[in-house]
Design brief:
The complex is a heterodimer of chains A (147) and B (425). Chain A is of the alpha+beta class and 147 residues long. Chain A contains 4 helices and 3 strands. By secondary structure, chain B is of the alpha/beta class. In chain B, strand 5, helix 6 (141-150) and strand 6 (153-157) form a beta-alpha-beta unit. The chains are: A alpha+beta (147), B alpha/beta (425).
C-alpha cells in the first residue's frame, strides 16, 4: 500500500478522455479526479489525480494499474469484490483482487472504508454517465454513505 | 492523592503527584495495540475517575428511584442527591443561584435551549447575532437556524494571524442592532482563550444578551460566572471527568423566568388542564420528563475530584505541559502548529498538521502506537476553511497527562514520517 501511496500509478494525463468525474469526501477532504478513455467497451487508458489520505491515494493508484484493458463488467465485479473485502464479507470466488488485498486491513478501520472506495465510486459513476451518453456526471461523487 | 497547596505561588510550582492522580483513572491502565494507552483526546471527552464510576453504579445499587414526585425513601434520597448536584454545580461556577442551573443533555442542547426558549421570542427581522469565526458548530448552527427562521443577521468576529480574536473588529461589529453576543471561551480546535470578560462588558454596554460556550473552559480554568457577567453559560459534564449525557445551562434566573419553555411535558408544569398549562418555577421549567438522574448524581463526584486537585493546580499543570509540548513539537520542522504561541493565552489543546501526511493517516499511525488523538475539522468547518486546512490533527491534555505522554506523541509523529518514507528534519 505504501508503494502505491508514495508513487501512485495513473497520474499521466490522458489526451482526450471519453469521460471524467470528480469525487470527494467532504468530511475528511479526500479528492479524486478520474478520467477514462474507452475503446469498444474496455478501458483503454485511465488517469487518477488524488489528493488526500494514504488509503484513498493508494486505492486510486491500484485502480489505475488494475483496470487498463478491463471491461465495464470486470470493473463492476472488481468493485463489488473490493467492497466485500472492506466490509469483511465473503468474497466471490472468481475475482482476483491483486494488490487490493493489501488494503484488507481497512476493514478494521470502518471510518476509512469510504476513503478506499472513493476512487472506485468516482470511476463507477463516470462509467454510468458514459453509458447514458454524457461526458461527465452532473454532480461530484461522494462516498459519504459508505460506512 | 496530594492536594495542591492553597497559595498561588505554590500552585505555580505545581506539587501535584500526577502518578497518583492517574492511578485513580482505571482506563489509563489499559493497553492499545499492545502499547500503553496515551490518551490525548480530552477535548473530545475526558476519562472518568473510579469515584465517578462508583457513584454511578452506587446510585443504581442503592438509591435508584424517580425524582421530585415520590414520597417513598428511595425517591427522597434520589431527589436529594440530584438537587444536591445542582447546588454543587452552582457553587463550582462561582457561587451562582442554583435556580439558574439547568441540567440538559450536553452543552449543545444547552445552547439550543437558549436559541428556542429565548431566541424565538427575542430575535426578530434585522436583529444581529454576533459570533466568531472560530465557533464550534454547536454555537453556530442553532443561530443559523434561528436567523433563517427570524430573518436575523449573523456576524462573525474574525481571527488575527496569531489565531486570537481580532478585538478591534469586534468593537466595530458590535452595535445597536446586536441582540446577542455568543462566544466560545476556549477554542476546541486552536486552544485560544478568548477575552470573554472584555467581550461581556461590551455586550452589556450594547444592551445585548451574552452567552458563553464554556465547553472547553469550565473543565480547565477557574470559572466565576458572576464576575464574568454572562447571561448564559453552557458546558458539558463529560468534558470534566463526568459522565456523558449531562450538560449544564447556567442562565440568570431573572432571564430564565421570563423565557418560554423549551421541551414540554411532565415536571416542567405546575397545573395542567386539557386546554392549557402553567409552568413550574425555574430551573425545573426547563427540565421536562425524567432527567438523566444517575449521571447528574455521578457528576457531583467529578466536581469533587476536580476540587480535591484544585482548579488552579489543573490550569497550572496544563499550561506547563502545553509549554513543553509546544517546545518539543516545534523541534519537528515538518509540523505546522496552530493557535497562539503563548501558553498563557491558550489551553491544553494543540492542533497541528503535516503538509505531507493526511491527519487521518497520522491518527492511524499514532493509534498503532497506543496514542489517541483526533483528526478532522473538529466541528469547526468555517474555522478550518479560514486556516486553509481540510482537517488538522489535535492533541488535547487533561490533568492525568504528563511529559511522558508528550514525549510518546513526539516520537510517534517521527515514526509516522519514517513510515511514509519522509525526512524527519
Amino acid at each position: 500500500m505504501l508503494d502505491h501511496y508514495r508513487a501512485p500509478r495513473g497520474k499521466k494525463l490522458l489526451a482526450a478522455p471519453d469521460v471524467e468525474n470528480q469525487g470527494m469526501n467532504p468530511v475528511c477532504g479526500d479528492e479524486v479526479k478520474v478520467a477514462v478513455k474507452l475503446d469498444g467497451g474496455r478501458i483503454a487508458g485511465i488517469s487518477i489525480m488524488s489528493r488526500g489520505c494514504a488509503i484513498s491515494v493508494a486505492s486510486g493508484s491500484m485502480l489505475a494499474e488494475m483496470l487498463v484493458g478491463k471491461s465495464r463488467q470486470d470493473v463492476e465485479r472488481l468493485q463489488g469484490a473490493f467492497r466485500a473485502l472492506l466490509h469483511g464479507e465473503k468474497l466471490p470466488a472468481d475475482v482476483d483482487l491483486g494488490d487490493l488485498e493489501a488494503l484488507e486491513g481497512v476493514k478494521k478501520l470502518p471510518v476509512r472504508v469510504k476513503c478506499a472506495l472513493l476512487p472506485w465510486m468516482t470511476l463507477g459513476d463516470a462509467l454510468k454517465a458514459w453509458e447514458r451518453g454524457s461526458n461527465n456526471p452532473a454532480a461530484p461523487s461522494t462516498t459519504e454513505h459508505e460506512e | 492523592m496530594n492536594a495542591a497547596p492553597a497559595s498561588a505561588a505554590a500552585s505555580r510550582r505545581s506539587t501535584l503527584d500526577i502518578a497518583a492522580i492517574r492511578a485513580g483513572f482505571p482506563i489509563l491502565a489499559r493497553k492499545v495495540h499492545g502499547r500503553r494507552l496515551v490518551y490525548l483526546d480530552n477535548a473530545a471527552t475526558t476519562q472518568k475517575p473510579e469515584s465517578v464510576i462508583a457513584a454511578l453504579a452506587g446510585y443504581y445499587r442503592t438509591s435508584n428511584a424517580n425524582i421530585h414526585r415520590g414520597i417513598h425513601t428511595l425517591a427522597q434520597e434520589a431527589t436529594a442527591a440530584y438537587e444536591a448536584t445542582r447546588e454543587r454545580v452552582a457553587r463550582f461556577i462561582g457561587g451562582v443561584d442554583p435556580h439558574g442551573v439547568v441540567f440538559t443533555r450536553n452543552a449543545t442542547e444547552a445552547i439550543n435551549l437558549v436559541a428556542h426558549a429565548w431566541g424565538r421570542r427575542n430575535i426578530g427581522p434585522g436583529d444581529e447575532i454576533l459570533l466568531t469565526e472560530m465557533e464550534h458548530h454547536s454555537n453556530l448552527v442553532p443561530w443559523i437556524i434561528l436567523a433563517r427562521e427570524k430573518g436575523a443577521v449573523l456576524k462573525h468576529v474574525p481571527l488575527r494571524p496569531d489565531q486570537t480574536l481580532d478585538m478591534e473588529s469586534f468593537g466595530l461589529l458590535i452595535g445597536p442592532r446586536t441582540k446577542l453576543v455568543s462566544v466560545m471561551w476556549v477554542s476546541n480546535a486552536l486552544g485560544t482563550i478568548n477575552p470573554v470578560a472584555e467581550i461581556g462588558a461590551a455586550a452589556r454596554r450594547a444592551g445585548a444578551v451574552f452567552l458563553v460556550d464554556g465547553a472547553q473552559a469550565v473543565p480547565h480554568l477557574p470559572v466565576d460566572a458572576k464576575a464574568l457577567g454572562c447571561d448564559f453559560l453552557a458546558f458539558s459534564a463529560h468534558k470534566m471527568m463526568g459522565p456523558t449525557g449531562v450538560g449544564v445551562l447556567y442562565g440568570r434566573p431573572a432571564l430564565l423566568k421570563d423565557m418560554d419553555p423549551f421541551l414540554g411535558g411532565g415536571e416542567m408544569i405546575r397545573e395542567v388542564r386539557l386546554d392549557g398549562a402553567s409552568w413550574n418555577d425555574v430551573p425545573w421549567k426547563f427540565e421536562a420528563g425524567t432527567p438523566n438522574i444517575a449521571d447528574v448524581i455521578a457528576f457531583s463526584a467529578a466536581i469533587d475530584s476536580i476540587e480535591r486537585i484544585g482548579m488552579d493546580a489543573i490550569r497550572s499543570h496544563e499550561r506547563e505541559l502545553t509549554r513543553y509540548a509546544l517546545k518539543r513539537m516545534k523541534e519537528l520542522k515538518f509540523l505546522t502548529l496552530f493557535g497562539p504561541d503563548d501558553p498563557e493565552k491558550r489551553s491544553g489543546v494543540v492542533s497541528f498538521a503535516d503538509p505531507e501526511i493526511h491527519p487521518h493517516d497520522i491518527s492511524t499511525v499514532l493509534d498503532q502506537c497506543g496514542i489517541a488523538i483526533r483528526a478532522g475539522h473538529h466541528c469547526a468547518q468555517p474555522l478550518m476553511r479560514r486556516l486553509g486546512q481540510m482537517a488538522t490533527a489535535r492533541a488535547s491534555f487533561y490533568i492525568y497527562n504528563d511529559r511522558d505522554d508528550v514525549d510518546a506523541l513526539v516520537a510517534a509523529l517521527v515514526e509516522a514520517r519514517k513510515y511514509f518514507g519522509l525526512p524527519v528534519s
